[in-house]
Amino acid sequence: MKTPKISEAVVRRLPVYLRFLNELKANEVLTVSSQDLGQKLDLNPAQIRKDLAHFGEFGRKGIGYDVSYLIEKIRAILKLDRVMNVALVGAGNLGRALSNYNAYLKDNMKIVAIFDNVPSKVGETVNNLQVQPMSELASTVKNREIRIGIITVPAAEAQNVADSFAAAGIEAILNFAPVILKVPSHIRIHHADFTTDLLSLAYYIEEEEEHE
Amino acid sequence: MKTPKISEAVVRRLPVYLRFLNELKANEVLTVSSQDLGQKLDLNPAQIRKDLAHFGEFGRKGIGYDVSYLIEKIRAILKLDRVMNVALVGAGNLGRALSNYNAYLKDNMKIVAIFDNVPSKVGETVNNLQVQPMSELASTVKNREIRIGIITVPAAEAQNVADSFAAAGIEAILNFAPVILKVPSHIRIHHADFTTDLLSLAYYIEEEEEHE
DNA sequence: TAGATTGTTAATCGATTAACAATC
DNA sequence: TAGATTGTTAATCGATTAACAATC
Hints:
The structure is a homodimer.
Chain A: H1 8-26, E1 31-32, H2 34-41, H3 45-53, E2 59-60, E3 64-66, H4 67-77, E4 84-89, H5 93-100, E5 109-115, E6 125-126, E7 129-132, H6 137-143, E8 146-151, H7 155-168, E9 172-175, E10 188-191, H8 194-201
Parallel strand pairs in A: 4-5, 4-8, 5-7, 8-9, 9-10
Antiparallel strand pairs in A: 1-3, 2-3, 6-7
Chain A binds a DNA duplex through residues 7, 9-10, 33-35, 44-47, 49-50, 52-53, 57-65.
Main location (chains A, B): cytoplasm
Family (chains A, B): Belongs to the transcriptional regulatory Rex family.
DNA-binding region (chains A, B): 16-55
């Protein structure tokens, strides 16, 4: 309906705005300008105004943005104003780290099931959830109305998990395994690949002898 | 010397190429075309050729790229052909997950020290390393010639850690805490913020009633 | 009113893609 | 030679930034 065609870059900045706005609210700041936001987030103020203007007129000329109001708006845009159940596959270190991250809770993203196909891990308790075998994935996804899946298994198994998610009717996937996964085009997939971030970091380190 | 000015987007794709090339090599594939690469990695072949051409002529017309040769070249570009010591601060779940990730080892990125300022964690062993108190950061960074720092502490403490890294002479930082950190301009910082990825995911999920 | 700041249009900048001569 | 594929130039596309009228 009101989806003109928003670029991915814009959508990815919204959570960043949201996070900082929440911080402002916690500090009882009532109003914020694109200037302020830009300074704190290292972004151009015009860009911030433009990003927000894609979705409506949220600010007031001469004044700025009402913090609480803007939070509400961004949450609605990102569909964080409703509960969104999440399944996680891979109860290793990273999986545990994520499930303990209760930060999502206040944004209504909730990990409600954890799966692993390593027998020794099945039945273990992670963050109050019993690790389930992969054989229960499809039924659990359906019963618990899970719409988002997180993959934290080793690279070699990631495609299989993605396939299982797809078969179970998952609508969006966040993949932490260092592989590019193929999924049906109706499924949204984001690659959260920090090995890429880390490996690209060294490029920017100065040589001993050289100056750039 | 041979630094014309490469865009960040290009540098971030290099580790992706590298990873897949390593996979090809493991499967004893000798040669690969930009066509093949593009298909596997969901990228435009012209883009891949252009990315690589920034750094030299690595391919052969009519044939493609020699897998082993290209691996060597990319590793050299990313400075992964030498050992790069890494310090990690924050021995929580995520910190542990990262230090167990031995994937870096073959790329010569090595976590050689782990720090935390929570007393109960100091002295614990994580992946064969004893967790050290923050008070030892500066001296350890110097003695062990650590050049890269990873931050896996809660958001509220991340800026402090970044400041300590800066004071200790760290040259690049990978930050997992969900905050934008301010560091001196000579320090390279990457934000590996998966909460952003996760929160932006819901945006793309279809409404029940709507079609896009 | 004077100062501040939005929403938006226009200008700029940069990145991606297409196309093709060169050549293996 | 014919087919394949690079390296690179030119064309396109899209995103960022500047500028400013509108207005609180």
